[in-house]
Amino acid sequence: EKNNEIFLSGVRIVGELCKNSVQRTKSVLVELGVPWFLEILNCSKEEQVNASQYCLQVILNTLSGLDSKPESRPDEKLCEENKKEIDTLLTCLVYSTTSRTITGLARDAIIQLIMRNVHYKAINWAETLVEIKGLQRLMEVASELQEYKYESAMEITESTRTITAVCLARIYENMYYDKARERYLEAVDDYIKGKLITPEIESKVRVVVSLTCLLLGPLDVGNTIVARDGMLEMILVMANTDDKLQQQVACECIIAAASKKDKVKSIISQGVDILKKLYQSKDDGIRVRALVGLCKLGSMGGTDASIRPFADGSTTKLAEACRRFLINPAKDPDMRRWAVEGLSYLTLDADVKEKLIEDKKAIHAMLELAKSGNQASVYPVVTTLVNLCNAYEKQEVIPEMIELAKFAKHHIPEDHELDDPDFITKRCIVLAKEGVTSALVVLSKTESENCKELICRVFNAICAVQELRGVVVQQGGAKVLLPMALEGTEKGKKYAAQALSRIGITINPEVAFPGQRCVEVIRPLVMLLHPDCAALESFESLMALCNLAGVSETIRNRIVKEGGVTRIESYMFEEHLMLRRAATQCMTNMILSPDVIKMYEGKNDKTKFLFLLCGEEDEDTAQAAAGALAMLTSMSKKCCKK
Fold it and tell me: Residue 278 — φ and ψ, nearest 5°?
């Protein structure tokens, strides 16, 4: 079919035919064959690639009993019955990753399909992938460079290497026992040794490029290989040559390798002079990479204001150099991405944060880069935003421990005066007014769960400022926070849920969470009512649930179904005054539900406890309890007798 719309509809119909029926799916596979699916996937139109990718995912879901819900798990019996079809399909996908005839978009889609299905929570196919030498193929893709064109080059996009790094990391996550990890390392070694045996420079360049990819994905594997004899030396020698390509890949590898403190020290002792020399290069691509290398080494002390690896004032100069690359419209997006990466390290320094937040041009350029949708720029942009909002965890330091550390002559990190709460709030307000929410909405499409966690941290920091919550809702923040509160890392889910509860406190729930969202937001809020959560998180969740419970009977029913009532009750026994008050007020709104009244009518002392709360010293708690009791007794004769 020549008409693209009709063709796309056809592909989508095939996908729908395969939904929820193993028999139909098998018939489709027999009738069309796996090569047909790979053929329609091989296209440079994003819409067609997405439709074909979705179609293949539906087939895998149906054969394994998975569905699109976050907590979905495969059906082991189905997986066993359809093992032949699943293995054939995934093997074909793995083999086609290194095909020279497919488009870059198709390659990305195939690697994403592998990444989504190898996990032990999905089809648990990671070990099979290692056995069929799939890692070597992924390493081959990881070693490709867009700048390096020759006859048998693969077509890749600017996001391919990032997606491959995430895929390699996802496979490594599933190597949960030592023998499997050894096999993974052997497969990577096999690829690297095969390349280093040949004397050509191109092979060495490819090794360094794939090593950079490993350092961005399965870090432990990357570090093991960098620590091998002669590896770091080879990279530094390449950085010292006059060949631009070698300088570029060596620079990128040095940046990726400088992630552990012990590695940083050896790189500072051997590599700083080389990086400084490269920064004098006439080629902008080399200069910006050398600059990022210096930025990363210079930020070794993190947020500790007392550690300065370089001379005073040098971080501000480096930040100024990054800014020049970032705001120059003549530079290509890749240059600007590197400039933001430099800033993501330098913004650990509070002086740089203040300089950057006052520079509207630079902030605007960074947010525009975030909205471009380039996967490689997600992490640097989000990290810079986390630093600007100070959205990282601060461990509570016991004063006695500080005294003990001083006595033991142990180093104590110092906070910068520009990292006080007033300065942080001011920075959050500037970012919100510059449209950071729209940028975060685009960035949240990333596959990386760690990046999503960082995005949730930024959202939570912005929602901590009451006047900014309306802006977050207007620009679609609440909509993207919901899925992130249900799926992702444990911390990420917690931050997203806290941001949602903050929105639910100050904005009418029907406006903040229109339609079905009002019901969906309940689960993440109830999750915050847990002894492991901080008191503030639980308090904010109770206040948001109180507002939601006043909206409609449907929502109250959902709170009951999610086990919210018992959790709310447990906080009514809390010693902390604010928590007890918030829980009692929340229960007052819940009393409107017939299901809750039935609970109070049962053989228990719930009504008695409400009566006792009416005598609380705190007036608000007493009023809420009295209101609840009044409604309860007006609707239930049993409770009146009690």
Answer: -65, -30
